[in-house]
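Narrative progress, year one. The postdoctoral researcher (J.K.) led the effort to move from monomer predictions toward full complexes, under supervision of the PI. The following entry was the first complex the group processed end to end, covering 210 residues in total.
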Amino acid sequence: MAEFKHLVIVKFKEGVVVEEMVKGMEKLVSEIDAVKSFEWGQDVEGQEMLRQGFTHVFVMTFSKKEDYATFAAHPSHLEFSGPFSAAIEKIVVLDFPSVIVKPPA
Amino acid sequence: MAEFKHLVIVKFKEGVVVEEMVKGMEKLVSEIDAVKSFEWGQDVEGQEMLRQGFTHVFVMTFSKKEDYATFAAHPSHLEFSGPFSAAIEKIVVLDFPSVIVKPPA
């Protein structure tokens, strides 16, 4: 069965301490068993025409779509949504079953 | 050492046969050893305010940043860029060392 992924890309507002946001997310995923894995990154190539102002990526992986629903409805997630929303200038969120074509070696 | 990821999110133009684009990408990554793994997905939640018109995600994983550079400069990649660029209405690309906080179980 395909894993389900919750992908978030953002541009934070000026002055936001990104480390604190990331710590908040780390705490969040550690509290919610439904999250199978969590990774994030900051763009380092800086090709502005391609990154369109976005700088950070956050990816949560779930064993199945139902686990994502559990996460989305979890009180800790709802609580975190407030400060996170306040910190971002723009965002794109995509939720999708992951199709792996070339598997990790 | 952190894996390096090449993340592409797109909205395809009307009338584009997405399956053909995906097949082209599958062929591409199968031809280029530097690509460690490849996965993709199509958003199924359809929360337009959050997905901002974007519908598809493509993620390539590399063992190190140098492998990404090899991929980016590969003739097959350059050749594929033409038809791919012609097929998309909008795109965001982010390239980043992946930080894994909660590892896969």
